[in-house]
Amino acid sequence: MLLEEIVIYTIVFLFCIAMIVFYLRKLKKASQVVQAKIEKAKEEGLHEPVSLHPVIDLGTCIKSGACVEACPEKDILGILNGGGTLINASNCIGHGACFHACPVEAITLVIGTEKRGVDLPHVSENYETNVPGIYIAGELGGMGLIKNSVDQGCFAVENMIKSGFKKDNSTLDLVIIGAGPAGIAASLSAKKYKLNFVTLEQDTLGGTVFTFPRSKVVMTAPMELPLYGKIKLYDTSKTELLALWNDALTKNNISIQENTKVEAITPENGHFKVVTQKGKEFMAKKVLLAIGRRGSPRKLGVPGEMTEKVTYRLLEPELIQNKEVLVVGGGDSAVESALLLAEGNKVVLSYRKDQFSRVKPKNRSKILSAIEKGLVDVRYNTNLREIGKTQVTLSHKDGEQFSLNNDLVYIFAGGELPTQFLQKAGVEITKRFGYTMKKHR
Prior knowledge:
Blueprint: H1 2-43, E1 53-56, H2 66-70, E2 77-80, E3 83-86, H3 97-101, E4 107-111, E5 118-121, E6 134-136, H4 146-163, E7 172-177, H5 181-192, E8 197-200, E9 217-219, E10 223-225, E11 229-231, E12 235-237, H6 238-251, E13 262-268, E14 271-276, E15 281-289, E16 296-297, E17 310-311, E18 324-328, H7 332-341, E19 346-350, H8 361-373, E20 376-379, E21 382-387, E22 391-396, E23 401-405, E24 408-411, E25 415-416, H9 419-424, E26 429-432, E27 435-436
Parallel strand pairs: 6-15, 7-8, 7-15, 17-24, 18-19, 18-24, 19-20
Antiparallel strand pairs: 1-4, 2-3, 4-27, 5-26, 9-12, 10-11, 13-14, 14-15, 16-25, 21-22, 22-23
Helix pairs in contact: 4-5, 7-8
């Protein structure tokens, strides 16, 4: 009997040892795969974060892998030696799905790194700036993803309600500046809470989304729109998204004052005077800035840039045919525009670096395929130097210049933070290095 027990315990012990060895080997093999991906990401310049990204506390992480499964972009995160790690960090666009999926809250969302700072306005966890009564939501505050912007627009208005409004029919309760995702959500929230408000947009409904090429697919996720309900969107075209927003606003009798650019916000008798470029004035108790960081496209400052052949957004690529086109930039907007323009035109894409490091995996795959097929002529390590009537001049990294025949130039060099406008309103701006973003779970 004793011998039988010894044999049984020995078998169980050996089985447990075998399972542990199998698990450790599997873990080691998986870590080797992740390490190889990290090395490849470093070679391709994709390991360094460029915008909002997750940071994992390895002391708290339980290695569940929930964050890896939740990430819709794939291969942003992985498990290395039993702990979470970043792989293709440059491809992260701040969905925040990993943040929500982590069962032990080991993930924080951070913008900027120890080496690369990002200019951000001062915003509290209630979305209020250092100027009491002026709030910020969406891209301007660092949250550029559509769903995040929608959430912030709603939360900002809710926090205003909590802070209270003094009854004064002589002024508006709220002026919302910007009609992108955050501004639209804030407008619906303001209507829900029966606020007296106006929404001003310097261009057209949709803000930055409106400037996307017509056929561009907008990556988004399920979100809740006040007075409209839950919307499940994943691969949705710009046209469909704008139609949805129009429907939500129309059903709730909300009108956006388009082509109304705000020039100044000044405090006056406990309220704010909002003055537009055309001289129209609004008095309000509170102001919500829902403008984008890219509202003003960054100029290159090269000769000829002010000519009519130069533009900073592509709205109807299908109307451009049989042209010699130069696209400048290395981000998603530049790559997507080059691919759209390649249908019926001769396209040259100029990028100042030696490889694409700021584009989504799908776009990288598409542009590399287009290069191989000869549909897009990519000139790495080049800079635009001059724009002429029929030609453009570029220079290589070593300074050598060359010219190309050209009809149109599209520049996608990002946008400039409206620093002067914010500072004029009293909003402080600081360069943040590895700044943890406040985000609702």
